[in-house]
Amino acid sequence: MNKRYRVYTTKDSFFLTQLEKEILNFSRDYIVHHWKIPAMISGEVLEKCGYFETMPNQLTAVGYFSEENCKQMSEGEKKKNLEIYVENMYLTPAACIHFYPEIKKEKMKNELITTNARVYRHENGKFGRYRLWDFNVREFVAVGSKEYVMDFLKDFQQKSLKLAEQYNIKSSIITANDHFYPSKKNIIKEKMQKANNLKYELISDDQVALASFNFHGFHFSKTFDFDEEESIVTGCVGFGLDRWLERVRKL
Fold first, then answer.
1. Is the pTM of this model over 0.85?
2. For labelling alongside 63, which of 73, 112, 150, 240 has CA 20 to 30 A away?
């Protein structure tokens, strides 16, 4: 397996299809919207979400060759003096961040949005068996009252534990924090996030994070102006499908 991405065999694809059916079944008693997202996202959205301050090491900028370089390569010349132009576009580092700019016009409350998506995190190139640059996730975002979002997060935690047990994976739910870029400000954010129980993870017995459960509060609803006078918050749950696949392979 390439340490940066995965090619899915028939057996892999069958497992992922079955796994996603199980995960999607978690939401059978909710109002759910199924969205598709693009591979790229604008720097403006990432800026509003705070990505450049908190996790710039995750980002992969999108670039393209100059016209002169294209001419050289098409004529079989050696690649030299390559010029790569980078616009304010990036490969999507988290599926849910595409949702927030769209929620205001959809006028949602006490509803879920979900997607299956490829996401891309460079993370200083520290790739390995459970950490890829290009990987597959199933993401859910809850939009609604604090009670609704908190109940959703607790419900999915319990269902995730049962699913792991079904696949013979010993697991537990633990408090966690995002791995922000280690600046003084971000280290404080990590400590506050953990102290306030804003993030939990489903961890296997060999310390692999298979899913995360995140309470955002008003962070996104205020930023993207759909908080409706502080009556709407958000939370998300993400399942790292490649990690489930690799973990079950290990059994």
1. yes
2. 240
